[in-house]
Amino acid sequence: MPRFQALLAKVGSAPVKFTPSEESRQFDFWIGEWDVVSPQGTAAGTSRIESILGGAAVMEHWTSAQGNSGKSFNRFDPTLRQWRQHWIDDSGNETFYVGGLEQGVMVLTSEQKNAAGKTELHRMRFFPLPDGRVRQWGEVSTDGGQAWTTEFDLSYRPAAAR
Predict the structure, then answer these.
(1) Higher pLDDT, residue 5 or 44
(2) Is residue 1 a part of any domain in this protein?
(3) Mind listing the pLDDT tens digit for each residue in 50-99?
(4) How many domains does the chain contain in total?
(5) Which tens digit of pLDDT belongs to each residue from 133-145?
(6) Domain containing 157 — which CATH number?
(7) Domain range spanning residue 84?
(8) For every residue of the chain, which 3-state class applies, written as one string?
(9) What local confidence, expressed as pLDDT, does residue 7 receive?
(10) What is the pTM of this model?
């Protein structure tokens, strides 16, 4: 009974309000409504990035130019002192990235098995640019991070600039 009474006391108490840490605001430069293009200016898709849950997380709503969609949930984990991203798309792909801010650039990396069962590293870097755009550069390494090959290079432009 004492355990039940302690649980009841917790349920009846006021919830603890989340106060975002300084680190949990590091990805705020990505928040906005975006038109996303390739380096050649070809439309790649649109993205809406928002702060959610009182600043506890950043949520991405992605739609490609081909109509595919995906979402990511991004949060700073104060215990591990790193950013974590959970990406899911409408083809069933799911990826977990970890990383953090390095010299003003958000760097997130994941380890995945390719179709042949070999381990690959995937790295995304998000660069806030002086003109208000954001560059997202994705790379893959098949040799443990010794060499990297570009997978994608995208520029997020404010949607108002259409």
Answers:
(1) 44
(2) no
(3) 999 999 999 999 999 999 999 999 999 999 999 999 999 999 999 999 99
(4) 1
(5) 999 999 999 999 9
(6) 2.40.128.20
(7) 18-161
(8) CHHHHHHHHHHHCCCCCCCCCCHHHCCHHHCEEEEEECCCCCEEEEEEEEEEHHHCEEEEEEEECCCCEEEEEEEEECCCCEEEEEEEECCCCEEEEEEEEECCEEEEEEEEECCCCCEEEEEEEEEECCCCCEEEEEEEECCCCCCCEEEEEEEEEEHHHC
(9) 65
(10) 0.86
Q: Is residue 8 part of a domain?
A: no
Computed over its alpha carbons, how large is the radius of gyration of the chain?
A: 19
- Name residue, tokens 């998000």: 126
- pLDDT of the residue at 137: 98
Q: C-alpha angle 66/138/154, rounded to 5°? A: 50
| CA of residue 31 relative to chain centroid, distance | 11
CA contacts within 13 A on the Cβ side of 58: 21
What does the DSSP 8-state code read for residue 162? -
Is position 49 within any domain?
yes
Q: What is the DSSP track for 21-66?
A: -SGGGTTGGG-EEEEEE-TT--EEEEEEEEEEGGGTEEEEEEEETT
